[in-house]
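Q: Predict the assembly, please.
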Amino acid sequence: MGTGSQAVLAVLGRGLVDPASAVVRVDDSGLTRGDGCFEGCRVLDGAIDKLDLHLARMARSAAALEIPFDEAAWRDLAALAVSAWKHPGEAAMKLLLTRGPTGFAAIGPLPPDYPRQRRDGLRVVTLDRGFASDAFASAPWLLGGVKSLSYAVNMAAQREAVRRGADDVIFVSTDGVVLEAPTGSVVWSVGRTLHTTPPGATGILAGTTQRRLFERATDTGWRTELTLGTVDDLRAADVVWLVGSVRGPVDVVAIDGTPRDRNPVVDGEIRRLAGF
Amino acid sequence: MGTGSQAVLAVLGRGLVDPASAVVRVDDSGLTRGDGCFEGCRVLDGAIDKLDLHLARMARSAAALEIPFDEAAWRDLAALAVSAWKHPGEAAMKLLLTRGPTGFAAIGPLPPDYPRQRRDGLRVVTLDRGFASDAFASAPWLLGGVKSLSYAVNMAAQREAVRRGADDVIFVSTDGVVLEAPTGSVVWSVGRTLHTTPPGATGILAGTTQRRLFERATDTGWRTELTLGTVDDLRAADVVWLVGSVRGPVDVVAIDGTPRDRNPVVDGEIRRLAGF
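A: Predicted assembly structure:
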């Protein structure tokens, strides 16, 4: 999402608004407390990719936060925003709802790093997330699986990755289980089996692109498994991807400074299955 | 902080602004990622309480987040806001800085629950924070001790407390150590010794009111200790307080539904030492 010259902003209850205007008050707890939820969606040639999955997850996030969510109004808002977006090709849309409540759909260009990352792959570092892999089992106040606005740790981890000469992060639990990336799922392949971390007790987000990928992969002969894997499992895997809705699946080319061979055949197949 | 008719808003780089106006754009990562930091301060009869301690902590938070922080400019901004606040008695000031960067000082009335809570004490529930008590020892990306805008879990925990018929929360580590409240420190007394949880590896915030209380208590013959205590330690304590900058120290009158006797003599002494 950007709000420069190439941008569209539609605000819930207001309609299209100048994207350079301020729309959030200083007492909105989405700002003061990170108290709200969001989705990041891919726009491709004027169509929103898997909007149903994003709205369903946003409804779950809002319900966990006890913020009212009118799915039909959000569907209309997203349609209004995309109708005003006149650029072909890929774009990024953010849907964001605060407890304020402030709600908006904003569309802007792809993040500038994404083309290079898709081409060259991702150098990742593994970072401890501080939680055990079952920390969220019976503690709903920890907001496991909720795509909240409280992403400061996710952003700090990505800065730590850059400091270490890498592009992104794979979070690991205190008991050594691979969790997720700050803004995406982790998927790895071993032969014709795709693995990802189970949501639920791990607290990770259920990825929408990971979900679609696994459904389509199953249709084309892959096995899929929800696996509590380790970093050693990633090292031994054929291919490891970080999978996000806007960036798509991008293969990991180094883990903690150790390069990995790329596998263009499997990688290409997985990217195409995910719609990229 | 409120932004109703009784409110003042001063924005960094702009000066005094209508507090009902929107000042934050939708691409400000303070909003989209909870990526920023804040302080909540008490204003009493037109003076800001312990502003130096708040600015020092905010500078540490901003440094941890790698956001530039100009302490002199913030001192001027706070002074500008308080000069426009014409109401005697107590008020709440919020200082907030995003990566945007957006910075503001906002002043409004005390939260409406505080007078009742101060009078009747706090019923608290203990909730698992999901982290071990040493989770933050060597993981700066987890932002231990940083007063970031990513407070969604803190707010969800307070909603859980209300759901259980209580007023507030004491977070506990997975290994049973008392941590902090969602918006304050935990302090407890045993005889003439005051205890609180050490910051650092525990990840808790270093409380400014707790700090001042401990300094003044030492001057009047109390011993003070940084203690990795348990909920049983709290049950056995003479008095337990949640200590915040705006609410002050408020004694705990029930833990997980079990009432506690109040001790008005010790409680009164501690509140006065803290300046309340």
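Chain B is about 30% helix and 25% strand. The mean pLDDT of chain B is 97.
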